[in-house]
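User
New here, explain this?
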Amino acid sequence: MITQAALNKEIDLIIANAIREDVGPGDYSSLACIPKDASGKAKLLVKEAGIIAGVSFACNVFAYVDPDLEIEILIEDGTQVEIGDIVFYVTGNSQSILKAERLVLNAMQRMSAIATKTNKYASLLEGTKTKILDTRKTTPGFRALEKIAVKIGGGENHRFALYDMVMLKDNHIDFAGGITQAITKTQNFILENKLDLKIIVEARDIEEVKEILNAGGVYRILLDNFNYEDTREAVKIIGDQCLTESSGGINEETLVEYAKCGVDFISSGALTHSVYNMDLSLKAV
C-alpha cells in the first residue's frame, strides 16, 4: 500500500476534481434562490442498514468547500448503522452545504456499500488465518476512497496501483518467455533501479508453483482459479517459503472453503466492482 502522505494527496485530487466537475463556474440553483449569507443546517440520514464509511472524507469535502462549515459527528466510520440513524450534522453557509452535498453523498453511499460487503466477507473468515484483500478493479479516479472503504469494513488492501508492488500475472509471464525468466528479469530490474518492491507471482497450476519456488525471491504466490484440492496441495508445497493468496471468482459461498485450505489471503474484485450504493441522504434541518 502507498504511504499515508501519498494517499492524502490522492484524496485531495479526488475532491478538487469532483468539485470542478460538479460545480463548474457556479451552483446556479443555489445562487438563484438562496441569499449568499444565508445559514442552514443539514443532517446525514441513514436510509439503509449497513456499515457507515466516508465520514472522515465528508469532513474533508466540507472543509475544502468552506472552512467555516461546522460538523458534529454522531457516528464514526466503521459503525453498524440502521435506518433512521443520523451520522452527522453540518452547519453553516447554506450555499456551501449544497455545493458539497452531491460529492459527500456519492462518496459515502459507495464507500458504505463497499465497507458493508467487506465486513460481511471478513466476518465469514473469522476463526481462520485468512485475510480478505481488495484488487485494482476499482472505479477510475475513485480508487483511494474505495481502498479506504475496504479497510473500514475490516479488509486489507492489496497493492494500490502498478507502482507500489510487482505482480507478475499470466500475460507478463507469457510475454517474458516463462516464469523463471519473468522473475529473474524483475529481480534484476528492481536491483538496477534500487527499488523497494515486493514480488507477487501468479501460478496457474501446481507445476508453476514449483517453478516459482525454485526461482526464489518471491513475496507471495497467487493461486489463480485453483480448485480446493489443488489449493491445499499448493499450500502444503509452499509451506513457509512465502505467503499464499487465492483468487478467481471466489464468492460468499466458496470463501470459507478456500480459507480452510490454509491460504494467507483471498483477493476479491467483487468488494469494489459489484456493489450497489447504500441509501443515504443529506436533509435540511
